[in-house]
Amino acid sequence: MSGVSTLFKRELRSYFATPVAYVFIVIFLVLSGAFTFYLGGFYESGQADLRPFFTFHPWLYLFLVPAVSMRMWAEERKSGTIELLLTLPVTTWQAVLGKFLAAWAFIGIALALTFPIWLTVNYLGSPDNGVIFASYLGSLLMAGAFLAIGSCLSACTRNQVVAFILTVVACFLLLLAGFPLVLDAVRAFAPQGVVDAIASLSFLTHFAAISKGVIDLRDLLYFLLMIGFWLYASALVIEMKKAD
Amino acid sequence: MIETRQLSKRYGDLVAVDGISFTVEPGQVLGFLGPNGAGKSTTMKMIAGFLAPTSGSASVCGFDVEKQPLEARRMLGYLPEGAPSYGEMTVLEFLQFIADVRGLKGETRERRIDDVIGRLHLERVVEQPIDTLSKGFKRRVGIAQAIVHDPKVLILDEPTDGLDPNQKHEVRSLINDMARDKTIIVSTHILEEVHAVCDRAVIIAAGKVLADARPAELEARSRYHQAVSLTAVDVAAAREALARVPDVASIEVDPQDGRITAFPKPGRAIFNEVGDVLKAQNIAVRELALEGGRLDEVFRTITTRAATAAQEART
Questions:
Q1: Per-residue pLDDT for chain A (244 aa), expressed as one digit of tens each?
Q2: Which chain A residues have a beta carbon less than 8 Å from that of B98?
Q3: Cβ–Cβ contact B45 with A under 8 A
Q4: Is the CB of B76 inside 8 Å of chain A's CB atoms?
Q5: Which residues cross the membrane (chain A) (predicted)?
Q6: Residue B86 to residue A90, Cβ atoms within 8 A
Q7: What are residue B231's phi and psi, to 5 degrees?
Q8: Mutation target among B10, B101, B143 for the A interface, most CBs of A within 10 A
């Protein structure tokens, strides 16, 4: 496990060694604030809760998380450091995990920095802080799932732009898996069972369930399995196409 | 110790490495030579455990690189082709990271890091991000990370590429210093380097081993081996005199600087005879030298012969 924690520290530090971290955090905070107050009608709703804040998280993540994950492996390939990394005494799986956890922690930091809005809503009224906590948890889990997808697609290419676009598309499809846009396309050729299975993969449905304040084991499992599956796929992809 | 057995790598129809077998013992420095694209780097990547061989096997200190990858990698220091490193880190951060992954702790860690910084003269740049360094410094940072854990086995892919002559000299003496108790493979296409650091040279082309010998033995294969070269005031007279030495097989005159080279018949030494004849005929000579043999010529002969053979096999 020491391999994972060493890689984790290096990766997390490297975010802050470049402007990536600061640009990401500033844009995330500004956009999440702007969406909450202007699109979400935070004041107009007259309710002391953070619903307008969390509603926009999936859409923010759709573009911001792939921007974090795109460099994860594509950059290692491009600069050749993948050869250095994978000839150190760490397993591919440790490398995948270390990188993923660092990116997840980084997004966790950005998410934690939204605390002023939590203070605001507590100042204005008396919200249900349990629901807010659950929403934060759901948001973090969803970001993790986005990142795991990004990790896998970043491992497929040495081009960060390709990794970014692929990840946005994959995440967009999974976000909307429960909606007609995706389901109608599947329904054309697949039986109802498959359609239902795909509908149940929707990020939005599971996120909405958690942000209501009900932490259902199934929703937690869904995100954790999603993360596990895509990280496993990342390790496979890296093993298969090391040399490219 | 490094051992490879029938190590091969195929990419579809392309055979990059074709059944390479050799053993390198501790205390040996093996120079890996070959034209670009001969399979040098691919072979090294397989020994370092980055690429999986298509067939055959490689082991480092008795650990098979595929079956016991972590044990093998712990024994190994590796400088990949192009000396990649994390550009946004400072030299010190990077070396600390490698030391941590290698499991160095406490005082040993500090001592080893200080040691490699000193050995590769990185003191001036330890606090600089690697991206801002010159090519020579980047290469030395790459070598530093490869030796920070004092590995038993060292694989260096073109360690002196991009260094100036002084730095090359330093890296070569560093390799010589470490050679006593380590097993080292160095790839290069600088032939003078083979003389300077290697006690064994393996020449490969098109993925096959074409020669495996001590550098001096390779030089003995050169047609320049034991040849005598000289510059004379009167070229024509000197040439005539040399032709009279019975063991001289042929004489060549460099059209540019008029340097004369006399080649001996196989297995004969002509240096003394040539000296005697010149003295007897009173021919003024500016300079007279015995040739040891030219590695670049041997290298060219061996690798081009292989290329033509491959061409013929295909047609």
A1: 678 999 999 999 999 988 888 999 999 999 988 888 888 777 777 777 788 888 889 999 999 999 999 999 999 999 999 999 999 999 999 999 999 999 999 999 999 999 998 998 888 888 888 889 999 999 999 999 999 999 999 999 999 999 999 999 999 998 888 788 788 888 888 888 888 888 888 888 888 888 888 888 888 999 999 999 999 999 999 998 876 6
A2: 88
A3: yes
A4: yes
A5: 20-41, 53-74, 95-119, 131-149, 161-183, 189-208, 220-238
A6: no
A7: -120, 125
A8: B101
Give a yes or no: residue B296 inside a domain.
Answer: no
Same domain, B183 and B162: yes
CATH number at residue B233: 3.30.70.100
CATH number of the structural domain spanning residue B94: 3.40.50.300
Give me the residue from B11, B101, B129 closest to A89, CB to CB: B101
Contact B85 A81 (CB under 8 A): yes
Q: In the prediction, which pLDDT does B110 show?
A: 95
